[in-house]
Design a protein that fits this description.
Layout (H helix, E strand, L loop, with lengths): L1 E2 L1 E4 L2 E8 L15 H29 L2 H15 L1 H14 L3 H17 L4 H21 L14 E5 L4 H5 L6 E6 L7 H8 L4 E3 L13 E5 L4 E4 L3 H20 L17 E6 L5 H6 L5 E5 L1 H4 L8 H14 L4 E5 L26 H7 L1 H15 L4 E6 L5 H21 L9 E5 L2 H5 L1 H5 L4 E4 L1 H9 L17 H17 L2 E4 L10 H7 L3 E4 L4 H9 L3 H12 L4 H13 L2
Helix pairs in contact: 1-2, 1-3, 1-5, 3-4, 4-5, 11-13, 13-14, 17-18, 19-21
Length: 571
Amino acid sequence: MYKGTNASSGIGIGKAVIVEETELVIERKTVADAAAEVERFKGALEKTMKETEALAADLATRVGEKEAEILQGHIMLLQDPALTGEIENTIKGECICSEFAVEMVCTMYANVFAGMDDELMQQRATDMRDIKTRMQRVLMDAESVNIAALPEGTILIAKDLTPSMTAGINPKNVMGIVTELGGKTSHSAILARALEIPAVVAVADFISGVKNGDEVILDGDQGDVYVNPEASVEKEYTAKRDEFLAAKEELKKYIGKPTITKDGVTVELVANIGKPADVDKVLQYDGEGVGLFRTEFLFMDRNSMPTEEEQFEAYKKVAEALKGKPVIIRTLDIGGDKEIPYMGLEKDENPFLGYRAIRLCLDRKEDIYKPQLRALLRASAFGNIKIMIPLVTCIDEYREVRTIIDELMLEMDRQGIEYNKDIQVGIMVETAAASLIADIFAKEVDFFSIGTNDLTQYTMSVDRGNDKISYLYSTFNPAVLRSIKRIITCAREAGIMVGMCGEAASDPMLIPLLLAFGLNEFSMSASAILYSRKLITNLSTEELQEVADKAMSFATTKEVEDYMRNFVAGL
């Protein structure tokens, strides 16, 4: 038996297929015409960009927008004028071939990223190496392994998998993934989990002990891998796999059922999406609406601002597809970890505390905000659209947005354009400031949606990408839980809807507490909806009050987590 890191749950049983890319030999070659060589590089860059965009679009449709963000990050790197400009200057300055210039510059950037303590930056190093190799393959007209064409029943074996390779996998044919390198938080592992393919990574010296066609069993929960196992081991893991698949199949019986607790409390289970194509997943998993439409993805992967008409069509498509179910659309939230080059934003020293989200939009009403709000109002005539404002910290911001919307409504009335005159406008509660004055907001806004990722980050003063202090980043921290409870209480007392659209909304350990607090709406990845419905229908909000009181009495994150873990295990 081999031991590695459990990266994606489930049992994989199949035949080994070792995937090895042909190693590229990159030589330093002098070119006579540097200008022509720069044009050759630009052509390869454009082709790589288009291939990446197609891969990202396919992944967004098949899996989800959140997962496609990884490849959209590759596109951002390819669009970075600092990177491409340095490659072009290297070609011109040293009169060398594009392949070698790409090697020099991308390797330099990758080494800088890899040397940083920040885990996200270290992932950026992997991304940089990925796009480097792909540009070089285009330049050298070298074929890549067609990973989408692997045969049915494959256990994919590789030294390492790049994000672009993982994104191309057909999960119908690949039963599992084993790699010698990688980690649980690597982009490849994240994609494997999204594709629901069992995976074990960081299995030392594995390739030397396996050959194509060998029978391989992997346990994505324990990190165990077997090659040509004994019959007893195969029998044991076949039973485990069947049990795992049966549990997944059982969830289908919750399709079409209302989300009601044992004591008759109805809540909404809705989904987070990034593009209209994601609606297919919402319908597939019987989502009761959309709790978060991240509109920034309409602004990414392009060289200019989307027009009002383009935005209107996107919002309208989602509203019509959901046939009257609620669609909460968040206005543009860029800055922080999301940058859009064509907008010409200056670099912030601390982008998460800087010029982003509603702050940017209110400053650029004419070219950014009014066209988006007008598109949202127009689309509201075709379904149950609600507008959500991100990163609000004071009531003045909400009032200013409300004033703009009222002015646009008057203008549309004069023009005879239809819209929902009673459209709801709410806020994303994701800052400590908004939490502390939630009672003030609740008197004026139409609804709350709690963004737990940022609320936890800001409450705890923790950069969630910094591995050195990640132990502080937990929704179960008593300070964060008290903040969440306060927000929900203020909403309920004012009689407005309160939802949650952070990742925590689908956490089985947190759901019982949220039900006890009185949360109305849970917004999550579409694939998490049916499991969450199963859990909720087996809980009673009345019985959970005692559980919540006990959880809130603890002084540390660990005490809360241990208590809730034991409670859920006993269900």
